[in-house]
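dude i think i finally got it to work??
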Amino acid sequence: MRAPVSLIVVGALSSPALSAVLSPLQLRAVAGQGWSLQSSTCPSGTQSCGNGSCCPSTSFCQATGNGEVTACCPTTSNCRGSVEGAPTCASPAWSLWTGSYGNGFCCEVGLTGAFVNGGSVAGICVTSVPSGYSTASLASKGTGSPATSVPASSTARTTIKSTSTKPTMSSGPTATTVPRAVFAHYMVGSMTPDEAVKDVNDAKAVGFDAFALNTHDITSSWALNALQYLFDAADQNGFKLFISFDMSWRTITPSQIPSFLLNYISRPSYYKISGRPFVSTYDGGFIANSDWVSGFQQPLISQGINPYFVPSFGDWSGWPNNFFSSYPSADGVFSWESAWPDPGTTISNVSDVVDQNLAQQARAAQKVFMMPLSSFQFKYLGPGQDWYRIGEVNLPQRFEQILALKPDLVELITWNDAGEGHYVGNFFAEQIAGSPIGDYANGFDHTGWQQLVTPFIKAYKSGTATSGSQILPPGSAPVGSLWYRTLLKSASCSSTIQNYQQGQDTVNYAVLLPSNGYTIRVYSNNQLIGSFAGSAGLNYGAVPGLSVGGGQYIQVVNSAGSVVASATGTKQVAAQSSNSVCNWNYEVVGLS
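look at this
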């Protein structure tokens, strides 16, 4: 999900380090600049930056971006971009390792770098690689003596179990009594009051129950103003909101949360379950259960407020097994990362194995399970931050998995994250100002996916739908959407995008039909590339044959041979990029 660009939080699952192709000038070391050392006990000559990161005493700590560790900078200016472009350690004594999504991190000589595949933390330093971790790639060996300090993984990141018990206030409803709800993850960024009203009203019209307001900043005026506008808009328009703390930035501690939450949980629009304010996270599994209890939950409980806590702790070293044994204070669990297929070089469908595991654990513990839903991921922000995660038919496949598994809650990722491309709603100019995001997001409207999301929400919340055939259009006419990339996979720039091998040159569609007897025709460059007999409910496919030129469209034809609905792309497909942007964003068009 997301590294800082302008004021909106966007994803930071980064691609492999490209230091091998950087010029000698780019790789020239700057004293005190580079990735931090990962150790729970900082060695002599260093300072603690918090959360198991250490920088040289003469450097300045810069907060982490998603998927990364703390950057050490020689001045107060943020040097993170320079470190991402030319990965090195802030001290030549440390060894540079390449871990999750190719992000760099540093260890003392003699320790081994390890990481969790797809994890949001670049890596940890260990004496031996623990179960569930992969060995990181050694990029350069440090000049220092073998380690004498304690690896970060031996304390804060692996010693998670606690003897603390769950708060003693009423535990509230179990999974069997929680009303089904569908939320949309919302990236809090700079905005106006009118924009807040538009987002609230648009999301309510789609059928969402609440926005999960992702924030990593609980002090800056831009963030507090945006939250004020959103809560005002929700109060006035009958919509709900709750806070999802982005812990991956390492800018918030559990003890800071209670006083912040007290500003919002009494608002009419704050989402509650049986009177308990709902709270979620992105990451935070590097923090022990006991610290969540003492810092976050107990201070609120002492004031008569028992938060309903459903975090996404995919960065926890033991994830996803035995979750509630290690985090008994949680009321539920959210499986963020399972919204997409695993990154890689081969085409694969999205898996619900982790979802099934966590759903079983939650039901056994009488807790709730929240399941993620998303379309795809695409980000193009420069070396180390360019990647793609499958989007051909990921969205309708997740519809089917959710209906089959019947989770207690669903969260769509996202309403407005233009940086990662999986937005289904609005994003506004000031939220991406000063960043390259507009180069690949502006002009690519994704609201066509809403035609699918609204009927899915109705089917899921009915409690009776178990398959795609039960996702029906709202009336007698077909609804659905068409989507395709406007650049072929064979474009010379595509190889700069991590996981580009998983992409396919296809025209993709999902159509909801009121009955059998329809035919769905798919065209590229005005040539028929597929014709499929439709059936009642959800029909979808990724049809090979995407061609250079215009004329990408689908038609829904009734039994009499008449075209009753169609969707036509507005953008041509190119063989090569005409500029510096290798744009794998999707053109999305709803049926009309």
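The longest strand covers residues 506-513.
im so relieved honestly
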